[in-house]
Amino acid sequence: MFDIQEELKKLPASPGVYIMHDKRDAIIYVGKAINLRNRVRSYFRESTNKTVKIQKMVSQIVYFEYIVTDSELEALVLENNLIKEHRPKYNTMLKDDKTYPYIKVTVGEEFPRILFSRYMKKDKSKYYGPYTSAASVKDTIDLMNKLYHLRTCNRNLPKDIGKDRACLNFHMHQCDAPCIGKISGEDYRKKIDKALEFLNGNYKGILKELEEKMLKASEDMDFEQAAQLRDLLNSVKAVAQKQKITESTGEDKDILALAKDERDAVVQVFFVRDGRLIGREHFYMTNVSENTDGEILNSFLKQFYAGTPYLPKTIMLSDEIEEGELIEEWLSGRKGSKVRLLVPKKGTKEKLVELAGKNAALVLGQDKERIKREEGRTIGAVKEIAALLNMPSINRIEAYDISNMNGFETVGSMVVYEKGKPRRSDYRKFKIKSVSGPDDYGSMKEVLTRRFQHGLAEKEELKEKQMEDDFGSFSRFPDLLFMDGGKGQVNIAKEVLAELHIDIPVCGMVKDDNHRTRGLYYNNEEIDIEKSSEGFRLITRIQDEAHRFAIEYHRSLRRKTNVKSVLEDIPGIGPARRKGLMRHFKSLEEIKAATIQELCQVPHMNEKSANEVYRFFRKEEDRKR
């Protein structure tokens, strides 16, 4: 048994990382400290003023562990890695985990290529970016290859020159074919140098050249060539237009600003490369309710720049941060040269940060409006239903449906909505075992009995483990049951619940003669609902979802049964091989179309059995002819 007070006495007065665990062994918080003894003890002192969030976290700590490091900088790096790996509940988290695209020019090769890359490696290549739009990067690379007729193949040149024929790009006049010696290394390098000029922002030369060629083609009445050149010219202008000048210094910098409300925060980042604003991106930070702007930016810097391969010379911030010097040291070590954190107070730089801040506030405001609309469709709709049924509140709704075709393979579905949104991880499907033929009431009784008996057993198991406040998918009971039907289905549900001594309100979703939802059956009476209300729309969505889920399961069983029945007729194909075929291929059609080699890849299949399957379906085709 872990004795927290005893373990606190053993803590070293060294820099390191501490890791807090709850009773399920989950990591709920990771932090770093210059002095582990002082920092970790502070969480458990009665006299220490703690925020509500920290108090709640401490109440859940069952044990902690720690890792000693040689320096605070090492602790910072380790803290970052652990937070990214475990995503603890009480750490302020960066929601987005993106890798940004780069344009990579393999200048270390004799015949360089221009490539798309998600990572910036320490090789002999030149990298441009990062960019925020992968589509723009691909368009630019495509434009470069068309403008300068560069190779896109992976051939090892000059070693492989002349070993194979030129590819289709050469015949389409989109590559000068260095692979067959159609262009020298020197002339090819001149084209690459022009491409590098373009990527560095020098568009004047290529714009002038394309315009002259277009006019010449037009004068020569080569209108097809003139149109192609016109399109290229427009593409170059479009790329050039996107590169907005922000200042004349030509520096690489990132500009960060923050907007926050009581629940979330948005960090807006402007990416400036060679003095040009190449893109912007916003990032959501969660669990920020009691953090200052500086603390949120501090967390963002550590998490974001731990994952990005490129580091600018300057990072401009909207607020001062606590660990500024330490983060500067860490970033400089990663870059291999000095990285500055700057909080500008006046002039152009302050205006840029201010602009980023306005953008962050705009994103947050728009998101709040979206959330407000979404809550009307979900939480607002649930409140309408609760008021309609005279219930104080509803959080979790479970809806059930039965599907069969002439009594064949009857199945049941259970769909779950929480706060008006589907919780798909808790959906369940049931293959009916005790009922034969088209008996919807009997089938529903089996489904509900199995569902709630399983839930009661799960609750008992959690109780024995002293984990009463934890839930499995079955042990969490609903606040309201929705049945796909009226009085009959409702009474079946009430009967099952009474037998199991469970008290849950049951409501029927009644349909009209055209199979459209018309109202609710509750407490022995039918309740009309305003058709234009959000509550009515939510009921319809739930009913449709329960039906869809049951139908999909039923179809999948029918497909498997059909496939199985056909496979049973093939000599030498027993249960293990039938199972392997059904798992490996999506349908009977795919099995029929498979080659012997493809059939041999199925578990438990050998060449002889693969031949049997292959011949069986060929004979079947011959019989049909």
Your description of this structure?
- The longest helix is centred in the C-terminal third of the chain and has 34 residues, at 534-567.
- Helices cover 46% and strands 19% of the residues.
- The chain starts with a helix and ends with a helix.
- Helix 5 crosses helix 9, helix 8 packs antiparallel against helix 9 and helix 14 runs parallel beside helix 15.
- It is globular, with a radius of gyration of 33 Å.
- The chain has 20 helices and 21 strands.
- The chain folds into 5 domains: 4-91, GIY-YIG endonuclease, CATH 3.40.1440; 102-245, no CATH class; 253-281 and 305-374; 383-557, UvrC, RNAse H endonuclease domain (Nucleotidyltransferase, domain 5); 568-624, Orthogonal Bundle (DNA polymerase, domain 1).
- It is α+β, with helices and mostly antiparallel strands and 625 residues long.
- Strands 14, 15, 16, 17, 18, 19, 20 and 21 form an 8-stranded mixed sheet that branches. Strands 4, 8, 9, 10, 11, 12 and 13 form a 7-stranded mixed sheet that branches. It has a 3-stranded antiparallel sheet with strand order 2-1-3.
